[in-house]
């Protein structure tokens, strides 16, 4: 129950955005509620008709009428091959998760009532004051309205027009074309000078793999770097196994094939170890100082 009624211009722009998004997404979860009123309709029947077959709509506002026009209260059904979930007792269907989330919110609120491990009710705190109904027999509800004052404008608030320099598309395209031309020329030169067709095939595969890998890594958004690290660890594991098989089981390499196999296994092990280290450091960035310690090595 946190939403407020918006202007007609805002609603029109919102509906236009929802119409575009409904054609692209596979699942919609709606939670908008207005205190004391029926839940607003955000997803119309036309929006649902434009969704892909097999999509899912979870209307968490179904108890107050729902945010989706085609939602049926307390029912799970399909409309235009789109599954609608309009259950009103989802918290009771997920008792463990609901209790954990509720306990986490309550514990954080109680821990915020004070400082230095001392319980103290600070009426100057907006959250604390808004949560108190009675104190020492005195009615404290409703809380007083908070006055909001505008901050004075500073030099940073004054927008300075940016000077946009025109960038010629010729230079980046020319650089990319020359880079690929040099690579292809080198590949042809190696093919002409190679003693056998097998070496030419292996060099071609290695070169194409390098090009594909370069574009794959640089084309990934930063949010997907951790999953990408896991994938590269799996690929490095395959490379390490292949290198071990080519090493022949001896104490030291006896030919060029075993030398290359040992080198591939060694480099793969470095990549695997570094991948786990980097992944752990990235996951540690999301930990809070108050989180309990984890002993994953056990």
Automatic annotation (TrEMBL):
Residues 1-86 form the Alanine dehydrogenase/pyridine nucleotide transhydrogenase NAD(H)-binding domain. It is found in: Cell inner membrane. It is a multi-pass membrane protein. It catalyses: NAD(+) + NADPH + H(+)(in) = NADH + NADP(+) + H(+)(out). Its EC number is 7.1.1.1. InterPro entries: AlaDH/PNT_NAD(H)-bd, NAD(P)-bd_dom_sf, NADP_transhyd_a_C. GO terms for cellular component: mitochondrial inner membrane; plasma membrane. Its main location: membrane. Keywords: Cell inner membrane, Cell membrane, Membrane, NAD, NADP, Translocase, Transmembrane, Transmembrane helix. Pfam families: AlaDh_PNT_C (PF01262), PNTB_4TM (PF12769). One of its GO terms (biological process) is NADPH regeneration. The chain crosses the membrane at residues 199-220, 232-252, 258-278. One of its GO terms (molecular function) is proton-translocating NAD(P)+ transhydrogenase activity. This is proton-translocating NAD(P)(+) transhydrogenase. It comes from Cuerna arida.
């Amino acid at each position: 129950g946190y939403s407020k009624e918006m202007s007609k211009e805002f609603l029109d722009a919102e509906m236009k955005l929802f119409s575009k998004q409904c054609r692209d997404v596979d699942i919609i979860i709606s939670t908008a509620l207005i205190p004391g009123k029926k839940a607003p309709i955000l997803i119309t029947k036309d929006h649902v008709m434009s969704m892909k077959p097999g999509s899912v709509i979870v209307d968490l506002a179904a108890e107050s009428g729902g945010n989706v026009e085609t939602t049926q209260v307390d029912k799970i059904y399909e409309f235009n091959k789109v599954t609608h979930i309009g259950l009103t007792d989802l918290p009771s269907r997920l008792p463990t998760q609901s209790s954990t989330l509720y306990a986490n919110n309550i514990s954080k609120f109680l821990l915020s009532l004070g400082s230095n491990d001392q319980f103290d009710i600070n009426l100057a705190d907006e959250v604390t004051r808004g949560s108190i109904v009675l104190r020492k027999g005195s009615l404290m509800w409703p809380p007083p309205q908070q006055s909001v004052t505008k901050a004075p404008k500073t030099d940073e608030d004054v927008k300075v027009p940016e000077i946009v320099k025109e960038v010629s598309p010729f230079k980046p395209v020319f650089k990319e074309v020359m880079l690929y031309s040099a690579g292809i020329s080198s590949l042809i030169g190696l093919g002409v000078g190679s003693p056998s067709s097998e070496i030419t095939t292996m060099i071609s595969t290695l070169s194409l793999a390098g090009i594909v890998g370069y574009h794959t890594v640089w084309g990934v958004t930063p949010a997907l770097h951790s999953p990408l690290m896991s994938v590269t660890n799996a690929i490095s594991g395959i490379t390490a196994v292949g290198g071990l098989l080519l090493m022949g089981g001896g104490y030291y390499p006896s030919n060029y094939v075993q030398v290359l196999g040992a080198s591939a296994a060694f480099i793969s092990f470095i990549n695997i170890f570094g991948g786990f280290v980097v992944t752990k450091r990235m996951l540690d960035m999301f930990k809070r100082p108050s989180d309990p310690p984890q002993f994953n090595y056990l």
